[in-house]
Write a structure and sequence with these properties.
single chain, 203 residues, alpha+beta, seven-stranded mixed β-sheet, two-stranded antiparallel ribbon, 8 helices, 43% helix
């Protein structure tokens, strides 16, 4: 239900907390939840990561048009053996991505875009985006290479993931740990170790 809210609400409610709790559960099971687009092409698994609006969705959609196999465009879980598992989430498409890659919209999606653009002009707080279910079968693959869509010191898996799922600094989670004695430091150290090993293995 939270995932279907308007985008300007979605990232400031309990859904954001849910993702951070999901990250903790993944870490406890020797995996990490990453914000990225993943695909399989010519015998290799790729993961594109970067800050929001860096081009992850447009990159994976371009690769799909070239015959790649689809894993995820938003969230992916990767275990310590570098296996990537898709997290099914609807894709937020904006008019620029659709035009750039010539994405095949259905008639209903075209109408929804007209409404979204009109709503955005009247009330700029709304984004001119629509959420769609991509028409591709999601598959699991082994990760071979990480593609960073940002430059400089931002080419850090830890920095990018801390930005998306900052569970360690979340006041709600910290309060829970204070009351219950849950060892969040231990979870965070394991998380950084998993990211370090993942970064080394996929250079």
């Amino acid at each position: 239900a939270m995932a279907n809210l308007w985008s300007f609400l979605k990232y400031h409610n309990i859904d954001w907390l849910r993702q951070q709790l999901m990250q903790i559960k993944c870490i406890e099971n020797d995996s990490v939840l990453l914000h990225g687009a993943a695909w399989w092409k010519e015998g290799k698994g790729y993961l594109a990561v970067g800050f929001p609006n860096s081009g992850k969705t447009s990159m994976v959609l371009r690769e799909m048009q070239k015959g790649a196999d689809f894993c995820a465009d938003e969230n992916v879980i990767i275990n310590k053996d570098r296996m990537m598992f898709p997290v099914k989430r609807r894709t937020s498409l904006n008019p620029w991505i659709v035009k750039e890659i010539n994405y095949p919209l259905t008639d209903i999606e075209k109408i929804r875009f007209i409404i979204a653009k009109a709503k955005s002009k009247v009330m700029p707080i709304f984004e001119p985006n629509i959420n769609v279910d991509l028409p591709y079968k999601r598959k699991s693959f082994k990760l071979d290479k990480i593609i960073y869509l940002t430059k400089g010191r931002q080419q850090s898996l830890a920095l990018l993931t801390d930005n998306e799922f900052p569970f360690f600094t979340n006041p709600v989670i910290q309060s829970y740990c204070f009351v219950t004695g849950f060892d969040l430091d231990k979870v965070y150290l394991k998380y950084r170790r998993l990211l370090r090993d993942l970064s080394i293995d996929t250079k």
